[in-house]
């Protein structure tokens, strides 16, 4: 997880303060992952692409299990991994 955060800082997706907040504010690894995903999602498609690329390079097995291994979108379609990452975690409730 720390290596992924380092990559995101190197790629200028996260600033050092955001990285530290994720590390210090989330003692449980799953919370770190959730916070990282939420933070990157808010930064848009470029940030998501960079995170997917980094995750695939750091842990190809996990990336494949999550269905995030392909970085090339099918012609005429948006990238399915990006769509997955950009979907809201909780559906919006219409009033």
Automatic annotation (TrEMBL):
This is CARD domain-containing protein. It comes from Poecilia latipinna. Pfam families: CARD (PF00619). Signal peptide: none annotated. InterPro entries: CARD, DEATH-like_dom_sf. The lineage of its organism: Eukaryota, Metazoa, Chordata, Craniata, Vertebrata. Residues 1-70 form the CARD domain. GO terms for biological process: regulation of apoptotic process.
């Amino acid at each position: 997880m720390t290596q992924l955060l380092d990559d995101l800082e190197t790629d200028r997706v996260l600033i050092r303060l955001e990285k530290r907040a994720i590390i210090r504010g989330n003692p449980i690894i799953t919370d770190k992952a959730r916070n990282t995903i939420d933070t990157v999602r808010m930064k848009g498609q470029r940030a998501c692409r960079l995170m997917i690329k980094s995750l695939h390079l750091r842990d190809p097995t996990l990336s494949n299990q999550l269905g995030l291994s392909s970085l090339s979108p099918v012609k005429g379609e948006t990238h399915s991994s990006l769509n997955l990452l950009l979907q809201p975690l909780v559906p919006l409730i219409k009033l």
